[in-house]
TrEMBL record:
Region entry Disordered, spans: 49-89
Protein name from the UniProt record: Uncharacterized protein
Alphabetized InterPro entries for the sequence: Quino_amine_DH_bsu (IPR011044)
Top-level division of the source organism's lineage: Eukaryota
Length: 464
């Protein structure tokens, strides 16, 4: 089995979003690459799970050519992904999901498999964000992520996770989900149930940074992509596309510590484990590593404070294509960069290219997400296509020239091209498509073993 065959896709069939999709034909639009959902998965290799212990039922998808018309159309996806592969059971199960609502995209929705007798799970939705704008990014607080990982394998039923939420214009909020969000779905109509949180709106949505906060008091911009990058030191990086800025926020103080201007509109941000104080930002044709070291709001806002480290540590420039997104890998100083239709792995210290996978998708890449502990990357396009790109090195046996049995002569050129992971034939055979397009970007799971993607037609896909 090759490295590409060790990873696969699965589509989660069933009632994943609860009552939301029944009221909306398509999910609200968010910019490409927006992280608007969080997923919690669990391994099923050791303990099998029943239908009531997971959200929906995952079915392994058969990889094939997109749009060739083969297979059935019973699950709503394209024909090439409709038929499940019978190679074996799916080793992961979707246990919990935090996403935006399916009607307006201004509220949070939590779905959890609580293991009830009816298998309905829990459904909880919050009030709309105070700004009324559409939610553009959802991130777990670092302390909640650590607590939920210690809560494994029952991380999905962690009672009160803390989230950072940003809308499409850059208002940043801090929210703590209540323990009542794990209540099971009731068959009683919603209008007969008492309202939840009628007097706790201010307690749930706590404003960390306003969109109009700037050094001059006036900020010009437009709704677009917005990314959040939490740091363990109680600081948060907020990056906005059409505001051309990068803000460092002190969460306990609720103050914007520093505000930097980007060269081009930003469309992706990630952290690098080897540079704990750095933020890698994808902005137009460049990818920049920003040094975000800062002691805090009190010392930074003083008039006599000086910066001892440079702002831009290193920068990558792509003269041919735009850098759409970035994500971390299993190596401390390496990040995966989506450049046009290619996926490149660079060392951020000098931006030396480690590897490159060309012609990854038919069209340009919209978002990427690492999974399998950073050993593979799922690549989603601007249309409906998605593909898995392994980052492992080619084993020596596969790197040696293939020879025919008996005569010891090299095989034909077409056989060698078929064995290449970047060949046109393998790109078509290893791609999977949703029905229409993706709703935002793919997101790595809580434990980093899998990644999930949501389509505009309420389809949920898992890469493992």
């Amino acid at each position: 089995m090759t490295a590409a065959e060790s990873y696969s896709f699965a589509m989660v069939r069933g009632d994943v979003f609860g009552r939301g999709p029944a009221n909306a034909a398509r999910r609200p639009y968010v910019p490409k690459g927006s992280r608007v959902h969080l997923s919690v998965t669990a391994a099923t290799t050791s303990v099998p799970l029943g239908a009531s212990q997971q959200l929906g039922v995952p079915r392994r998808l058969r990889k094939g050519r997109c749009g060739d018309g083969e297979g059935g159309e019973d699950d709503g996806a394209r024909g090439d992904t409709a038929a499940p592969d019978n190679e074996g059971p799916v080793p992961v199960a979707l246990m919990g999901l935090i996403s935006t609502d399916s009607s307006a995209g201004t509220r949070l929705v939590r779905r959890t498999a609580v293991g009830g007798n009816d298998g309905g799970g829990s459904f909880w939705d919050s009030d709309a964000v105070p700004s009324g704008q559409r939610i553009g990014c959802i991130q777990l607080a670092p302390e909640s992520r650590a607590e939920m990982l210690q809560f494994s394998p029952h991380a999905a039923v962690f009672p009160s996770p803390r989230l950072y939420v940003a809308d499409t214009i850059g208002n940043v909020y801090y929210a703590t989900l209540p323990a009542t969000s794990l209540a099971e779905i009731s068959d009683e109509p919603p209008k007969k149930r008492p309202r939840r949180g009628t007097d706790t709106d201010d307690a749930f949505w706590r404003t960390v940074a306003s969109a109009t906060t700037s050094e001059g008091g006036v900020t010009y911009g437009a709704p677009g992509w917005c990314g959040l990058l939490p740091f363990s030191s109680g600081q948060l990086v907020c990056c906005r596309e059409f505001f051309f800025d990068l803000r460092l926020v002190d969460v306990p103080a609720g103050t914007v510590v520093r505000q930097y201007g980007t060269i081009h509109p930003a469309t992706g941000v990630t952290a690098c484990s080897g540079v704990p104080h750095g933020a890698v930002v994808a902005e137009g044709p460049v990818a920049t590593l920003y040094d975000m070291r800062c002691p805090g709001a009190a010392l930074t806002l003083s008039p006599d404070s000086t910066r001892e480290v440079p702002l831009v540590t290193s920068r990558l420039t792509s003269p041919a294509s735009y850098v759409a997104d970035v994500c971390a890998t299993c190596n401390d100083y390496e990040v995966a960069v989506a450049v046009g239709r290619s996926l490149c792995v660079h060392d951020v210290r000098k931006w030396s290219r480690v590897s490159v996978s060309t012609n990854t998708l038919k069209y340009e890449i919209a978002s990427i997400a690492a999974f399998a502990s950073g050993k593979a990357v799922v690549v989603a396009g601007i249309d409906a296509e998605v593909r898995i790109v392994p980052l492992q090195k080619t084993p020596p046996a596969a790197a040696a020239p293939a020879r025919a049995a008996g005569n010891g002569l090299p095989r034909k050129e077409e056989d060698a091209a078929a064995a290449s992971p970047a060949s046109f034939r393998n790109r078509l055979d290893s791609a999977v498509c949703c029905r229409s397009t993706w709703n935002g970007g793919w997101v790595a799971g809580l434990d980093g073993v899998s990644a999930t993607g949501v389509s505009a037609d309420h389809e949920v896909f898992v890469a493992f």
